[in-house]
Amino acid sequence: MTSAKPFTMASDNESGFELDNLTITHPITARRVKRGESLRGCYKILLLGTTGSGKSTFIETLCPSSKPTLAISGNTLESVTQSLQEYFIDGITPSPTSSNPAQRIVLIDTPGMADDKISENAVVNGVVGWLYERTHFINHIIYFDRITDVRMGGNRKRAIELFKLLSGVQAAGNVTIATTMWDQLGVSDAGDGVESSRGEERRKKGETAMNKALERFEELRRGYWESFTTSNTNPNPKSPTSPSPSNPTPITKFINTQPSALHILNTAVSRYSIDTNFEVEKPAKTAGNGVVRMPFGRVLYEGLRERLERLKMRGRGVEEEIEGMSGGGVVQGEGGVMGDLDLNTEDRDELLQLLMKEKEDVEFMKGRVEYELSGFGPVLPPEWGIENN
Fold it and tell me: Judging by beta carbons within 10 Å of its beta carbon (0-12, 13-18, 19+), is residue 378 exposed, middle or buried?
């Protein structure tokens, strides 16, 4: 496909739509940016979201022929992406007829928030460090959020609130929200899926699951994302939490197909702006300093404190399980996972090795979190009303 005309695609789940801001020149592929390669002239899109929300899957779905070589997504709630990664997207560029002057698209994949192995503080500081070293600014952010999450749990809510602070409502026009896992509704809620040969009952369950997801979609738009998705002609540009932007954020559906990914990318490219002014860019523009003083600093600090307490509890549980083995079994400790067991010597030795390894891992993660907390300094901003102990 070499035409510069708008490219039209359709899938089983979508009517045809025009990619009026994109030009497809050949099969779309992705490759990691090599060290030293310049991002000049690129439209830089940062991908953020919780672990397992579909950021890496989005890249592989957009570029299906690259999936075997990328191998960056997983079907678990444990982040496969453990460090920030840049990907050149080839075969597609902003259309000459659009207002976007970029010559190439680059997607920046990030580790997931609300992950057991990496803190939100580490994720954000990784982005800030990358901005300082590479570019100082990004053009657009796509935030990924699972529609299959029935409840707004604490981790998910914290991630959304943190993201709002990282963006700032003044940059809402340069944000796209991509709700994900729509293709999983039939599998998770209707057994073999909406089109199952088992008949009408499963189809009804699938329809019910979809209807509930659509209700959650509207709840997200009108509830948790309202300050970003509701238009206001007179926003306060000085306040990152000022409600209602003049150019509101679109909220989209990613159904795990290439046309769906292209539709979201087309939306992101269409919202080109010379000055994005994301809050997360500001520390990089001041020599990489000032994260603590940013609106999101307190959220990062509190997240680390909570993470440290969870690790301490987990460590106590492991210690109690190890001690309990001396009595001929395994006792249930605080935060532990084992009940009373009657084990032979071989099984006991194997379990003890596993527990000792877990203890080592917990101690390592505790040390890392304590180190991150030390980065906030001995004295916290007085407006937080928190003592750094």
Answer: exposed
Mean pLDDT computed over 16-23: 76
Provide φ and ψ at 16, rounded to 5°.
-60, 145
Domain boundaries, the chain: 22-189+198-233+244-288, 295-326+346-376
CA 105 and chain centroid, separation: 19
Contact 272, 100 (CB under 8 A): yes
Residue 217, token pair as written in the block: 């979609």
Q: pLDDT of 311-336, one tens digit each?
A: 999 999 999 988 887 655 544 444 44
Residue 186 CA to residue 203 CA, distance in Å, equals 8
Give the number of residues written for the chain. 389
Q: Is the dihedral of CA 188, 153, 297, 309 positive or negative?
A: negative
Q: The domain 22-189+198-233+244-288 belongs to what CATH superfamily?
A: P-loop containing nucleotide triphosphate hydrolases (3.40.50.300)
The pLDDT-based confidence of 337 (bands split at 50, 70, 90) is very low
Pairing of the two strands 22-32 and 85-94: antiparallel
Q: With residue 178 as reference, give the H or E element that holds it.
A: strand 175-180
Nearest Cα residue to 126 out of 111, 138, 137, 116:
111
| Euclidean distance between CA atoms 321 and 236, whole angstroms | 55
Residue found by looking up tokens 């959020």 in the block: 145
DSSP secondary structure letter of residue 113 = B
Q: What is d(CA 245, CA 267) in angstroms, rounded to the nearest whole number?
A: 17
Rounded percentage of the chain residues whose pLDDT exceeds 90? 49
